[in-house]
Amino acid sequence: MARQAGRNLYNPQARRDTCSGNQGFLRCKEGSEPYFKEGNLQEWLFHYGALLPYPIQLVSSQTTRLINPPSPPWVKDPQLARKHRSEVLAFGKQVLGETFRDFIPLHTSSGRTGGIAFILPQAVNLGAKRNHRVYLKHMLVSEAADNVLPDWAFFVKCMIWTDELQPTASREHFYENVQLEQVREELGGTIRQELMRMAEYDPDRLQSIISLHALSMKALAVEDSSFYSIIHEWLPFESTFGTKPLGELKQQPPLYFTATLDEYRQITHVASAQSMLVVNGGYIYDAELLSLLPLIDPDVQTERLLPEDVSLSFTDITPQERLDYYESVRLADSVLQKFRCQVQLRRFKPEEIPVLYTLSQESAQWRVMEATKEVSTDALSSVLGSLGATLKDAAYATLYFNLNNPVIERAFHPAHKAMLPSIIEMLYCNALMMGHYPMNRQETALLNKGIIQFIDWGMTASHTTGGDE
C-alpha cells in the first residue's frame, strides 16, 4: 500500500486523476503512533491552520471532519469584530486557551496586517514575557512573537495575521527592519486610539481595564502626553488618603508627592495624622507623571515633598521647655554625632510615633557611599572615601523627637540622664528600621548591644523588686 502510494506521488497522471493539487504521504515510524491518532491530528491541524481561507478536512475510516470553520468576516476587516463580540471572544478562548472579557481590533493603513488584541484578564508584571500568535499568509508561524507590538502593550495577548513581515530562520520572531517598525507603530497606535475612544464614549470599560493594567497605561502615558491628558483622571496612585484616581487627588491643591518610596515611608504616618495629602511617587512612572501633570492641566499645582519639609508643620517647643531640656538635647546630639545625625525636639502628631528620621539629599548619598565602602575592595573604598569627603560637611540627618509622646517626655527628663545615651541609640535604630533604611555594621552592632543592655536592666530591676514592679 505504502509503495503504491509512493508511485502515485511521482506519477503525473495519477495526480491528475486523484485531485487538482499535490498529494503527500507520511509513513509512520515505529514508536511514533501517537502522532497519527485522530484526536491529535485534529488538534494540530486546527492549531496551525485555523485561519486558512479554504476548508481543511480530516478524513478517517469512520468520519469526515471540517477542521476550520469558514473564515469570519472580521478576519478580512478586523474593525467588524466589534459587531461579533461573543464570537471573537469564543474564538480567542479556543485558539489562545484563555478566557477573555474584552479585546481591541488591530489594523494597519495598508490592510496587509490585522488582528485582535485580547485584554488579559489578570494583571501582569512589567517584565513578563510577551507572546503573541502570528499567522503569515493565514498559516501559523509563531506563538512567541514578542517584537510585533510596543513594549508598553504588555497587557494584551494578540492574534495577528500579516503578509508583509519577514520571519527569522527560527520562525519565532520577525526581522527588525523598517517594515516591522512601521507595523509595530501602527498597531500600537490602534490600541492607543481605541483606549482614547473608550475615555470619551465608554469610560466604565476603560476604568475596568485600568484597574487591572494601570502599569501599562502609565507606561503609555509617559510616552504620549495627549493620551495622558485624556485618561489621567482614571490612573490610580497611592497616597496618604488611600489609593485613589488622580482625578480625585488633584482636587486638593497643591498636590504634594515624593520621588522615592523611602521618602514616602518616612513621612506617611506624620502626614496622615495631620490630614496632609501626599502622593507616593516612588513606583515606576509615578513621579514622572505627577511632574508632568501641570503641563496637561494648568489648573493643577504639583510639588515634590522632601521628608525635612514635613518638619515645617511640627510645633516648636516653648522657650521654657527649650531651657529645661537643653542639657538633655546636647547630650543626645553628642551621642549621635558619630552617625552624623543631629537632634531636634518637637511636638507633632501622631503622638504614638516617638521619633522621625529624615535625610537630606547629601546625607542620603553619604549613607549609600558608606554602606558601599563596607563591601568594596580597598581600592574602591579609597575612591568612595574621597568622593564622600566632599559631602561629609553637609551630610547631616535629623532625628526629631516627639515631646507629645509620653516615653520621650520621660526620657529627656533630667532624672534619666544616665540612661539617656542608651535610650537615644535605641530610638535612633528604631527610627532607621521604621523608615526602611538599610543599617550599616556599626548601627547593627549598636542595636544588638542596646537590646542586651535593656534586657539586663529589666532583669536587674525585676530581681531588685522581686518582680512586683
Overview of this protein structure:
The protein has 469 residues and is α/β, with parallel strands linked by helices. Helices cover 47% and strands 15% of the residues. It is built from 19 helices and 16 strands. It has helices at residues 2-9, 12-18, 38-49, 73-76, 85-96, 178-201, 203-223, 225-231, 246-249, 261-273, 286-296, 307-310, 319-324, 326-336, 361-374, 378-392, 406-411, 420-434, 441-465, and strands at 57-59, 64-66, 103-107, 113-119, 132-136, 139-145, 156-162, 236-237, 244-245, 255-258, 278-280, 302-304, 315-316, 341-347, 355-358, 397-402. It has a five-stranded mixed beta sheet with strand order 3-4-7-5-6, with helices on both faces. A four-stranded mixed beta sheet has the order 13-14-16-15. A three-stranded parallel beta sheet has the order 11-10-12, with helices on both faces. Helix 7 runs antiparallel to helix 8. The protein is elongated, with a radius of gyration of 34 Å. Mean pLDDT is 84; it is low at 1-18.
